[in-house]
Amino acid sequence: MKNDATIDIDIKRALTSKLDSIDFENLKFGHIFTDHMMTCDYENGSWQTPKIMPYGPISLDPSAKVFHYGQAVFEGMKAFKDDQDQIWMFRPKDNFNRINISAKRMAIPEFPENFFFQALDTLLKMEKDWIKKGFGNSLYIRPFVIATEPGVSASPGTNYKFMIICSPAKSYYNGEVRVKFSENYSRAADGGVGYAKAAGNYGAQFYPTNLAKEEGYQQIIWTDANTHSFLEEAGTMNIFFRINDTLITTPTNDRILDGITRKSLITLAEENDIKVEVRKVPVQEILDAAKDGTLKEIFGTGTAAVINPISGFGYKGEKHELPVLTDSYATFFKDKLMKIQYNLSEDKHGWRYLVK
Ligand code: COI
Protein backbone atom coordinates (compact mmCIF):
# COMPACT_ATOMS: atom_id res chain seq x y z
CA MET A 1 0.00 0.00 0.00
CA LYS A 2 3.02 2.34 -0.22
CA ASN A 3 1.82 5.34 -2.17
CA ASP A 4 3.07 8.92 -1.79
CA ALA A 5 0.59 10.51 -4.18
CA THR A 6 -0.86 13.77 -2.90
CA ILE A 7 -4.55 13.54 -2.13
CA ASP A 8 -7.37 16.06 -1.81
CA ILE A 9 -8.71 16.66 1.65
CA ASP A 10 -12.03 18.46 2.14
CA ILE A 11 -11.62 20.94 4.97
CA LYS A 12 -14.41 22.65 6.83
CA ARG A 13 -13.17 24.77 9.72
CA ALA A 14 -14.91 25.22 13.05
CA LEU A 15 -16.38 28.72 13.39
CA THR A 16 -15.19 29.07 16.97
CA SER A 17 -12.51 27.34 19.03
CA LYS A 18 -12.96 25.72 22.45
CA LEU A 19 -9.29 26.33 23.26
CA ASP A 20 -9.77 29.26 25.63
CA SER A 21 -12.18 27.30 27.82
CA ILE A 22 -9.77 24.40 28.50
CA ASP A 23 -7.86 24.05 31.76
CA PHE A 24 -4.69 22.44 30.40
CA GLU A 25 -3.25 21.95 33.89
CA ASN A 26 -6.09 19.69 35.00
CA LEU A 27 -6.79 17.32 32.17
CA LYS A 28 -8.51 14.03 32.82
CA PHE A 29 -7.23 11.59 30.21
CA GLY A 30 -9.38 11.37 27.08
CA HIS A 31 -12.21 13.69 28.09
CA ILE A 32 -11.57 16.83 26.06
CA PHE A 33 -11.36 16.79 22.28
CA THR A 34 -9.92 19.38 19.91
CA ASP A 35 -11.89 21.54 17.48
CA HIS A 36 -11.62 19.26 14.44
CA MET A 37 -11.70 15.61 13.46
CA MET A 38 -10.84 13.63 10.36
CA THR A 39 -13.31 11.28 8.77
CA CYS A 40 -13.00 9.15 5.65
CA ASP A 41 -15.64 6.79 4.29
CA TYR A 42 -15.13 3.46 2.58
CA GLU A 43 -17.81 3.01 -0.08
CA ASN A 44 -18.11 1.02 -3.28
CA GLY A 45 -14.83 -0.76 -2.58
CA SER A 46 -12.61 2.27 -2.01
CA TRP A 47 -11.67 4.95 0.50
CA GLN A 48 -13.23 8.27 -0.47
CA THR A 49 -11.83 11.80 -0.05
CA PRO A 50 -10.85 12.39 3.62
CA LYS A 51 -12.70 15.23 5.33
CA ILE A 52 -11.58 17.40 8.20
CA MET A 53 -14.54 18.98 9.91
CA PRO A 54 -15.59 20.47 13.24
CA TYR A 55 -15.48 17.86 16.04
CA GLY A 56 -18.95 16.59 16.81
CA PRO A 57 -21.40 13.70 16.86
CA ILE A 58 -21.79 11.47 13.83
CA SER A 59 -24.99 9.85 12.69
CA LEU A 60 -25.15 6.10 12.10
CA ASP A 61 -27.95 3.69 11.33
CA PRO A 62 -28.86 1.73 14.49
CA SER A 63 -28.23 -1.50 12.57
CA ALA A 64 -24.66 -0.47 11.64
CA LYS A 65 -22.48 -3.55 12.03
CA VAL A 66 -20.13 -1.95 14.52
CA PHE A 67 -22.95 -1.92 17.08
CA HIS A 68 -23.82 -5.58 16.64
CA TYR A 69 -20.61 -7.37 15.78
CA GLY A 70 -17.94 -5.09 17.17
CA GLN A 71 -16.15 -4.60 13.88
CA ALA A 72 -13.92 -1.81 15.16
CA VAL A 73 -10.19 -1.24 15.59
CA PHE A 74 -8.19 1.70 16.88
CA GLU A 75 -4.75 3.13 17.58
CA GLY A 76 -3.20 5.42 20.15
CA MET A 77 -0.51 7.92 19.17
CA LYS A 78 0.90 11.14 20.60
CA ALA A 79 2.20 14.45 19.26
CA PHE A 80 4.67 16.62 21.18
CA LYS A 81 5.79 20.23 20.78
CA ASP A 82 9.43 21.22 21.24
CA ASP A 83 10.82 24.61 22.34
CA GLN A 84 11.01 25.77 18.72
CA ASP A 85 7.28 25.07 18.25
CA GLN A 86 7.95 22.08 16.02
CA ILE A 87 5.50 19.21 16.30
CA TRP A 88 6.82 15.67 16.56
CA MET A 89 5.30 12.25 16.61
CA PHE A 90 6.89 9.02 17.78
CA ARG A 91 7.15 6.09 15.33
CA PRO A 92 3.77 6.84 13.68
CA LYS A 93 4.55 4.47 10.81
CA ASP A 94 4.39 1.65 13.34
CA ASN A 95 0.92 2.75 14.42
CA PHE A 96 -0.13 2.99 10.81
CA ASN A 97 1.13 -0.53 10.11
CA ARG A 98 -0.53 -1.84 13.24
CA ILE A 99 -3.96 -0.41 12.52
CA ASN A 100 -3.89 -2.22 9.20
CA ILE A 101 -2.75 -5.45 10.89
CA SER A 102 -5.66 -5.07 13.32
CA ALA A 103 -8.02 -4.19 10.45
CA LYS A 104 -7.04 -7.28 8.50
CA ARG A 105 -7.80 -9.53 11.49
CA MET A 106 -11.25 -7.92 11.80
CA ALA A 107 -11.97 -8.19 8.03
CA ILE A 108 -11.80 -4.40 7.65
CA PRO A 109 -10.22 -2.96 4.47
CA GLU A 110 -6.74 -1.53 4.88
CA PHE A 111 -6.31 2.23 4.89
CA PRO A 112 -3.80 3.76 2.43
CA GLU A 113 -0.59 5.21 3.86
CA ASN A 114 -0.74 8.48 1.92
CA PHE A 115 -4.32 9.11 3.17
CA PHE A 116 -3.24 8.44 6.74
CA PHE A 117 -0.20 10.69 6.84
CA GLN A 118 -1.56 13.54 4.78
CA ALA A 119 -4.78 13.67 6.76
CA LEU A 120 -2.91 13.38 10.05
CA ASP A 121 -0.39 16.12 9.19
CA THR A 122 -3.17 18.44 8.04
CA LEU A 123 -5.25 17.82 11.15
CA LEU A 124 -2.27 18.29 13.51
CA LYS A 125 -1.27 21.55 11.86
CA MET A 126 -4.83 22.80 12.30
CA GLU A 127 -4.77 21.77 15.98
CA LYS A 128 -1.21 22.95 16.72
CA ASP A 129 -2.31 25.36 19.47
CA TRP A 130 -3.81 22.41 21.34
CA ILE A 131 -0.33 20.89 21.71
CA LYS A 132 1.30 22.51 24.71
CA LYS A 133 5.03 22.74 25.21
CA GLY A 134 6.65 21.19 28.23
CA PHE A 135 7.71 17.72 29.34
CA GLY A 136 4.60 15.66 29.99
CA ASN A 137 2.23 17.64 27.76
CA SER A 138 1.04 15.94 24.60
CA LEU A 139 -1.82 15.54 22.20
CA TYR A 140 -3.23 12.02 22.31
CA ILE A 141 -4.36 10.97 18.85
CA ARG A 142 -6.97 8.29 18.38
CA PRO A 143 -7.37 6.90 14.86
CA PHE A 144 -10.14 4.31 14.60
CA VAL A 145 -12.22 2.42 12.04
CA ILE A 146 -15.81 1.25 12.39
CA ALA A 147 -18.16 -0.77 10.19
CA THR A 148 -21.02 1.53 9.25
CA GLU A 149 -23.02 -0.62 6.87
CA PRO A 150 -26.62 -1.01 8.06
CA GLY A 151 -27.87 -4.57 8.50
CA VAL A 152 -27.71 -7.21 11.18
CA SER A 153 -26.56 -10.12 9.04
CA ALA A 154 -23.44 -11.50 10.69
CA SER A 155 -20.94 -10.74 7.95
CA PRO A 156 -18.29 -8.07 7.40
CA GLY A 157 -19.58 -4.64 6.46
CA THR A 158 -19.19 -3.17 3.01
CA ASN A 159 -18.97 0.39 4.35
CA TYR A 160 -16.59 1.80 6.96
CA LYS A 161 -15.55 5.06 8.52
CA PHE A 162 -11.91 5.82 9.37
CA MET A 163 -11.69 8.69 11.84
CA ILE A 164 -9.01 10.54 13.77
CA ILE A 165 -9.85 12.47 16.92
CA CYS A 166 -7.39 14.25 19.21
CA SER A 167 -7.35 14.92 22.92
CA PRO A 168 -4.85 17.03 24.90
CA ALA A 169 -3.21 14.82 27.52
CA LYS A 170 -0.95 14.75 30.53
CA SER A 171 -0.61 11.45 32.39
CA TYR A 172 -2.91 8.47 31.94
CA TYR A 173 -2.79 7.19 35.51
CA ASN A 174 -2.92 9.56 38.43
CA GLY A 175 -1.50 8.14 41.60
CA GLU A 176 -0.31 4.66 42.40
CA VAL A 177 -1.20 1.67 40.26
CA ARG A 178 -1.72 -1.68 41.94
CA VAL A 179 -2.45 -4.71 39.80
CA LYS A 180 -4.08 -8.05 40.32
CA PHE A 181 -2.64 -11.12 38.58
CA SER A 182 -5.59 -12.76 36.88
CA GLU A 183 -6.61 -16.10 38.33
CA ASN A 184 -9.60 -17.06 36.12
CA TYR A 185 -10.42 -14.44 33.55
CA SER A 186 -8.52 -14.11 30.26
CA ARG A 187 -7.97 -11.26 27.87
CA ALA A 188 -6.89 -13.28 24.84
CA ALA A 189 -6.51 -16.83 23.61
CA ASP A 190 -4.34 -18.61 21.06
CA GLY A 191 -5.61 -17.97 17.56
CA GLY A 192 -7.70 -15.04 18.78
CA VAL A 193 -7.47 -11.27 18.38
CA GLY A 194 -5.30 -10.35 21.36
CA TYR A 195 -2.55 -8.91 19.15
CA ALA A 196 -5.01 -6.59 17.39
CA LYS A 197 -6.18 -3.27 18.80
CA ALA A 198 -9.74 -4.47 18.40
CA ALA A 199 -12.26 -2.48 20.43
CA GLY A 200 -13.73 -5.66 21.95
CA ASN A 201 -10.39 -6.61 23.52
CA TYR A 202 -10.78 -3.58 25.76
CA GLY A 203 -14.51 -3.86 26.47
CA ALA A 204 -14.03 -7.48 27.55
CA GLN A 205 -11.65 -6.37 30.29
CA PHE A 206 -14.04 -3.98 31.99
CA TYR A 207 -16.04 -6.47 34.05
CA PRO A 208 -13.07 -8.39 35.56
CA THR A 209 -11.28 -5.06 36.07
CA ASN A 210 -14.30 -3.73 37.98
CA LEU A 211 -14.11 -6.78 40.24
CA ALA A 212 -10.39 -6.13 40.77
CA LYS A 213 -11.14 -2.48 41.54
CA GLU A 214 -13.49 -3.55 44.31
CA GLU A 215 -10.46 -5.27 45.85
CA GLY A 216 -8.35 -2.10 45.57
CA TYR A 217 -6.51 -2.69 42.28
CA GLN A 218 -6.51 -0.37 39.26
CA GLN A 219 -5.59 -2.93 36.60
CA ILE A 220 -5.26 -6.64 35.91
CA ILE A 221 -2.18 -8.36 34.62
CA TRP A 222 -3.67 -11.00 32.42
CA THR A 223 -2.42 -14.55 32.51
CA ASP A 224 -2.47 -17.13 29.70
CA ALA A 225 -5.93 -18.52 28.99
CA ASN A 226 -4.86 -22.18 29.15
CA THR A 227 -3.15 -22.42 32.52
CA HIS A 228 -3.27 -18.94 34.11
CA SER A 229 0.30 -19.54 35.16
CA PHE A 230 2.15 -17.12 32.85
CA LEU A 231 1.89 -13.33 33.00
CA GLU A 232 1.04 -11.68 29.70
CA GLU A 233 0.05 -8.00 29.54
CA ALA A 234 -1.94 -5.41 31.43
CA GLY A 235 -4.42 -4.64 28.68
CA THR A 236 -3.71 -0.92 28.50
CA MET A 237 0.03 -1.60 28.82
CA ASN A 238 2.67 -4.23 28.07
CA ILE A 239 4.43 -5.30 31.21
CA PHE A 240 8.05 -5.54 32.38
CA PHE A 241 9.46 -7.18 35.51
CA ARG A 242 12.84 -6.37 36.98
CA ILE A 243 14.47 -9.18 38.93
CA ASN A 244 17.80 -8.02 40.35
CA ASP A 245 19.08 -5.97 37.41
CA THR A 246 17.50 -7.97 34.59
CA LEU A 247 14.33 -6.93 32.81
CA ILE A 248 11.92 -9.64 31.74
CA THR A 249 8.99 -9.22 29.38
CA THR A 250 6.76 -11.63 27.61
CA PRO A 251 7.30 -12.25 23.86
CA THR A 252 4.75 -10.91 21.40
CA ASN A 253 2.51 -13.53 19.85
CA ASP A 254 -1.14 -13.73 18.76
CA ARG A 255 -2.30 -12.86 22.28
CA ILE A 256 -0.06 -9.88 23.00
CA LEU A 257 -0.11 -6.39 21.54
CA ASP A 258 3.14 -5.53 19.75
CA GLY A 259 3.57 -2.35 21.77
CA ILE A 260 5.62 0.46 20.28
CA THR A 261 6.76 1.72 23.69
CA ARG A 262 7.58 -1.89 24.61
CA LYS A 263 9.84 -2.47 21.65
CA SER A 264 11.47 0.98 21.98
CA LEU A 265 12.29 0.20 25.61
CA ILE A 266 13.87 -3.14 24.66
CA THR A 267 16.11 -1.28 22.18
CA LEU A 268 16.99 1.40 24.76
CA ALA A 269 17.79 -1.25 27.37
CA GLU A 270 20.10 -3.10 25.02
CA GLU A 271 22.03 0.05 24.14
CA ASN A 272 22.31 1.00 27.81
CA ASP A 273 23.72 -2.42 28.72
CA ILE A 274 20.66 -3.44 30.69
CA LYS A 275 19.90 -7.10 30.22
CA VAL A 276 16.44 -7.88 28.82
CA GLU A 277 15.02 -11.36 28.61
CA VAL A 278 12.09 -11.70 26.25
CA ARG A 279 10.51 -14.93 27.40
CA LYS A 280 7.53 -16.42 29.18
CA VAL A 281 7.09 -15.07 32.70
CA PRO A 282 5.77 -17.65 35.18
CA VAL A 283 3.57 -16.25 37.95
CA GLN A 284 5.51 -18.46 40.37
CA GLU A 285 8.84 -16.87 39.42
CA ILE A 286 7.49 -13.42 40.25
CA LEU A 287 5.95 -14.64 43.53
CA ASP A 288 9.26 -16.24 44.51
CA ALA A 289 11.22 -13.11 43.55
CA ALA A 290 8.81 -10.94 45.56
CA LYS A 291 9.32 -13.20 48.58
CA ASP A 292 13.12 -13.35 48.41
CA GLY A 293 13.44 -9.61 47.68
CA THR A 294 14.93 -9.93 44.17
CA LEU A 295 11.81 -8.49 42.50
CA LYS A 296 12.75 -4.82 42.26
CA GLU A 297 10.14 -3.38 39.91
CA ILE A 298 7.13 -4.02 37.74
CA PHE A 299 6.14 -1.39 35.22
CA GLY A 300 3.80 -1.06 32.28
CA THR A 301 4.54 0.54 28.92
CA GLY A 302 2.10 2.03 26.43
CA THR A 303 1.46 5.15 24.39
CA ALA A 304 -1.09 6.57 26.79
CA ALA A 305 0.62 5.45 30.00
CA VAL A 306 4.23 5.93 28.68
CA ILE A 307 6.07 3.99 31.44
CA ASN A 308 4.05 3.50 34.56
CA PRO A 309 5.44 1.97 37.74
CA ILE A 310 3.35 -0.61 39.57
CA SER A 311 3.45 -0.16 43.32
CA GLY A 312 2.11 -3.54 44.31
CA PHE A 313 0.29 -6.64 43.15
CA GLY A 314 -2.11 -9.22 44.45
CA TYR A 315 -2.54 -12.89 43.73
CA LYS A 316 -4.83 -15.48 45.36
CA GLY A 317 -5.66 -13.19 48.26
CA GLU A 318 -2.06 -12.23 49.04
CA LYS A 319 -0.85 -8.68 48.55
CA HIS A 320 2.74 -7.78 47.74
CA GLU A 321 4.22 -4.29 47.87
CA LEU A 322 7.12 -3.30 45.66
CA PRO A 323 10.03 -1.28 47.00
CA VAL A 324 10.28 2.44 46.19
CA LEU A 325 13.59 2.80 44.35
CA THR A 326 15.64 5.94 43.83
CA ASP A 327 17.32 4.38 40.79
CA SER A 328 14.36 2.72 39.11
CA TYR A 329 14.50 1.50 35.54
CA ALA A 330 11.01 2.90 35.03
CA THR A 331 12.25 6.45 35.71
CA PHE A 332 15.45 5.93 33.73
CA PHE A 333 13.65 4.70 30.61
CA LYS A 334 10.80 7.18 30.86
CA ASP A 335 13.29 10.03 30.86
CA LYS A 336 15.29 8.58 27.95
CA LEU A 337 12.18 7.92 25.89
CA MET A 338 10.52 11.27 26.58
CA LYS A 339 13.71 13.18 25.74
CA ILE A 340 13.63 11.55 22.32
CA GLN A 341 9.91 12.24 21.95
CA TYR A 342 10.28 15.94 22.87
CA ASN A 343 13.31 16.46 20.61
CA LEU A 344 15.59 16.97 23.59
CA SER A 345 18.08 14.23 22.77
CA GLU A 346 19.61 12.49 19.80
CA ASP A 347 17.28 10.25 17.82
CA LYS A 348 19.66 7.46 16.78
CA HIS A 349 16.95 5.20 15.46
CA GLY A 350 14.95 7.68 13.40
CA TRP A 351 11.92 7.29 15.67
CA ARG A 352 10.86 10.95 15.57
CA TYR A 353 8.55 12.18 12.83
CA LEU A 354 8.30 15.90 12.13
CA VAL A 355 4.79 17.09 11.27
CA LYS A 356 5.18 19.33 8.23
C1 COI B 1 -2.72 3.49 24.30
O1 COI B 1 -1.77 3.42 25.06
O2 COI B 1 -2.77 4.29 23.36
C2 COI B 1 -3.85 2.59 24.45
O3 COI B 1 -4.36 2.16 23.48
C3 COI B 1 -4.39 2.33 25.77
C4 COI B 1 -5.76 2.91 25.80
C5 COI B 1 -6.79 1.88 25.88
C6 COI B 1 -5.93 4.08 26.65
TrEMBL record:
Positions bearing N6-(pyridoxal phosphate)lysine: 197
Keywords: Amino-acid biosynthesis, Aminotransferase, Branched-chain amino acid biosynthesis, Pyridoxal phosphate, Transferase
EC top class named in words: transferase
Catalytic activity: L-valine + 2-oxoglutarate = 3-methyl-2-oxobutanoate + L-glutamate; L-isoleucine + 2-oxoglutarate = (S)-3-methyl-2-oxopentanoate + L-glutamate; L-leucine + 2-oxoglutarate = 4-methyl-2-oxopentanoate + L-glutamate
Family annotation (Pfam families): Aminotran_4
Enzyme Commission designation: 2.6.1.42
GO molecular function: L-isoleucine-2-oxoglutarate transaminase activity; L-leucine-2-oxoglutarate transaminase activity; L-valine-2-oxoglutarate transaminase activity
GO biological process terms held by the UniProt record: isoleucine biosynthetic process; L-leucine biosynthetic process; L-valine biosynthetic process
SUPFAM superfamilies for the chain: D-aminoacid aminotransferase-like PLP-dependent enzymes
Obligatory cofactor(s): pyridoxal 5'-phosphate
PANTHER family assigned to the protein according to its UniProt record, in alphabetical order: BRANCHED-CHAIN-AMINO-ACID AMINOTRANSFERASE, SUBGROUP IIII AMINOTRANSFERASE
Family membership noted in the UniProt record: Belongs to the class-IV pyridoxal-phosphate-dependent aminotransferase family.
Known role: Acts on leucine, isoleucine and valine.
Protein name, per record: Branched-chain-amino-acid aminotransferase
